[in-house]
Amino acid sequence: MLELIKNKKLFPLSIFLLLALVYFQIIFPKNAWTQTATVSIPATVTTVANKGNGVLDLLGRFKLAKNMQNIEYFQGINSGSFDRNGGLLLGNTYILPIKIVRFDGSTIRSTLNITDFDLAKKIENYNLEVEKTKLKKGHYKTTKELWVPFEILLLDSNDFADFNKKKTSKREPQVDYSFLKDAKISRTSKDLEGVAFYIIAGHGGPDPGAIGNRDGFELHEHEYAYDVSARLAKRLIENGADVFMIIQDPNDGIRDEQILRNGGNERMINGDAISPIQIERLKQRTDIVNDYAQRNTNKYKHQALIEIHIDSRITDRRVDIFFYHRSGCARSVKLSKDLLNTIEEKYRKAQPNRGYSGTVSARDLFTLRNTTIPAIFIELGNIQNPADQIRIIEPNNRQAIANWLCDGIIKHFRK
After folding, report:
1. Residue 254 sits in the same domain as residue 134
2. Got the DSSP string for 378-391?
3. Between the chain's N and C termini, which has fewer beta carbons within 10 Å?
4. Each residue of 299-318: pLDDT tens digit?
C-alpha cells in the first residue's frame, strides 16, 4: 500500500483502497469473516389462543395429556394471562409445557444429560409425532430443535430452567437445627450414630394439605404433620442421628397447643420458596433430598427419607397409622415393617383391648419413586374422623407417635 501512495499515478487508487478498507472494518468487525452463523432457538413452545380455545384444546392440539398436572403447570407458567373466569384471552400467546432444547447432534440422552433409554425413546416418539402432524417443522436432527414435554421429563421452574447441571457445592450439607427453635437437645445415646434422616412434613407453604373441622376450628394437615416431624427429628437427634428437615417453618418449632394455626410461611431447607404448583413442589423436595444424599454419601453409613402425612377419608372411617414404601426397595420394606411392628407392640402394652389395623404396602408416590435412598411414607390417621383427630390434636399423643416411630427406627438400625 505504501508503494502505491509513493507512485503519483496510482495515488487516487491508493486513496480509494484505503477508504474501502476502513469501510469494511466498520461494517464487518474483526473476525466477522470467520464467524459461522448460529440459529437462535426459543426456550419454549408457544401458541396463540383462537376463538373457542380452552386450556384442554391447546394441550390436545400439541399431543399433551389433558390431566391436572399439565393444567396446573400451564396455568402456573402463564400466570396473569387469563380472564376473570380462568379462560384464555383471544389472540393471546401462551407458553406450552414443552421446552425446546438444542439437540447436540449425538443422542437425546447426551443432549438432556439422562441415562434412561426408555425415557429418551418417549421424547423421540413425541418429536416424531408432532413433526408428522406439522406442528413442528423439520426433524429434530436436522433443525437441532428437540421438543421436551414437561409430562415426560419433569422440568425445573422459571419457565423451564436450562438442562445444564446446576452448580451445587461439593461440600457436605451442614446440619442446622434452628427449626426446633427453643427446644433443648441433648444426645442421650449413640444408637443412631452414623445415620442421616431426611424428613419431609407433607404439604406446606401455599398448600395446607387436607383440612378437617373440629369445634368450629380448621385442622390443617401440614401443621400437624410438621409438629410430629419436628418431634421425631428431635428424638432422632437425641439418639445420635443427623436430621435434615426438608420443609422448615421460620416461626414454628414444637408446639403444645391443640389447634395449630396455619401460617403458610414454610420454606425449603435451602431457603427457596415453596412452589405454588403441586408437581414442582414435589420435585423441589426430591431434588434437594437427592442432592444432599449424594453429597453425604461418604459421611454416613446409612441414609433414609421419612415423609409424614395425615390421610383424609370419609368422616366415619377411623384409620390407624399406616405405611407406604418404594416398590422393589428391600430396605424401605423392612423399615416400614419394623415401624408397624413397633407401633402394634406399643398399642398392645398401652391399650391391650384396642387392637391395631395399620398396614404396610407399596405405592407409586412421587417422592418414593424419585428419590435415591430408602424411603417410607407415613399416614398418621384420618383428619376427618373425630376419634383420629384426638390422636393428632393432643400434644401428648403427637409426642407419643414421635417416640414410637423413633423406637421403631432404632430397632431397625440396631439389626
Report:
1. no
2. EEEEETTSHHHHHH
3. C
4. 999 999 999 999 987 777 88
